[in-house]
Amino acid sequence: MAQPWLAVLGAQLHNLQNVTARVPLQRLVAVTGVSGSGKSTLARDVLLANVQAWVQQRSTKAGRDAMDAGKAPPLVGCTGLQGFETIDRVLEVDQTPIGKTPRSCPATYIGFWDTVRKLFAETLEAKARGYAAGRFSFNTGAGRCATCEGQGIRTIAMSFLPDVKVPCEACHGARFNPETLAVTWRGKSIGDVLQMEVDEAVAFFASMPAIAHPLQLLKDVGLGYLTLGQPSPTLSGGEAQRIKLVTELTKVRDEVGRRGQKAPHTFYVLDEPTVGLHMADVDKLIRVLHRLVDGGHSVVVIEHDLDVIAEADWVIDLGPEGGNAGGRIVAADTPEGVVQRGTHTGVALAPVLAR
Ligand SMILES: Nc1ncnc2c1ncn2[C@@H]1O[C@H](COP(=O)(O)OP(=O)(O)OP(=O)(O)O)[C@@H](O)[C@H]1O
Ligand SMILES: [Mg+2]
Ligand SMILES: [Zn+2]
After folding, report:
1. How confident is the model at residue 261, as a pLDDT?
2. Which CATH class is domain 106-232?
3. Whole-model pTM over 0.85
4. Which of 37, 304, 315 to mutate to test the pocket of ligand 1 (most atoms within 8 A of CB)?
5. Which of 87, 210, 292, 326 could form a disulfide with 37 if both were Cys (CB 3.0 to 4.6 A apart)?
6. Residue 261, class by beta-carbon neighbours within 10 Å (0-12 exposed, 13-18 middle, 19+ buried)?
7. Residue 135: helix, strand or coil by DSSP?
8. For residue 171, how far is its CA from the centre of ligand 3 (angstroms)?
9. Are 279 and 102 in contact, with CB atoms under 8 Å apart?
10. Is the pLDDT of residue 253 over 80?
11. Would you say 197 and 229 are in contact if contact means Cβ atoms under 8 Å apart?
12. Residue 328 backbone phi and psi in degrees, to 5
């Protein structure tokens, strides 16, 4: 029987005062506490870093053999690690941009753009013209607009001033050449699809589950207003983070779809994912986190948001204060249990749970 708890022993990095933390696996776990209490240090610098190193070593036969022979990776900031064996993969989902290149967009990042291109290549018009899926790429090949090389915009260098971006004069932002745009699927060209908002695209592709499902997930997390082709570098931090979560959710489904195969158990760490989110979007984020857990994954979320903490299966509350007056676990319990213990977090959480 697999150990259902992950444990880090004797954590002593930064302000952590010889902390032993136990994290239930395949649950939603909130790490809480006042600013400077040691949340990021415990969750990212100690837990994530060590589990990452150990899981990575265990992923190869040579690594497993070395570990069996007592050669585990050096521990960082703690004296022991237990219960990591069932974890196959470790991932931090943060708000950093999802790519610096303007050639990336939600559709290509999540990965359903290839299916859209194949759909266009299957049309009678495309077959008559001899266009394969590659023709419908805006990043390479003969189908994209040659003037802007498929970017839809042109960058004009100004001396002594920042570059100016203007719509491409040849394609007017459509990113493809007229011959490619002449091919349509249900009345829309590939350029129209790229400029479509997620909300509209969900309905438009309803008959194509491989495309509609990720689009529906984007809608579920409150990103229905994005266009499929919005350049990734222009997404906000919160948007980028939710797109990463959607990408993870599409994998949950793929894995459940492949019958008989066990989904790789992923250990997710998110540091304050609700920063910058509106209250309505917090609810959507909570639903995504629950879906990851329902898919058999483990989620650790560092949070100040009381609604997220209230929804957690387990809370690790650090404190009691910040800096050297913190760095200890003041409660490790269910949200109700933390309220009963009356820590700072418990006091703040009480009215939220009473609702
Ligand atoms: N690299 C570092 N070197 C020394 N001290 C550090 C380092 N990183 C953090 N600290 C200190 O350790 C303590 C805990 O920091 P940590 O970032 O874990 O807090 P936190 O609970 O995540 O706070 P916040 O809610 O503000 O993000 C703080 O007093 C901080 O100043
Ligand atoms: Mg922090
Ligand atoms: Zn162009």
Report:
1. 62
2. mainly alpha
3. yes
4. 37
5. 326
6. exposed
7. helix
8. 4
9. no
10. no
11. no
12. -125, 155
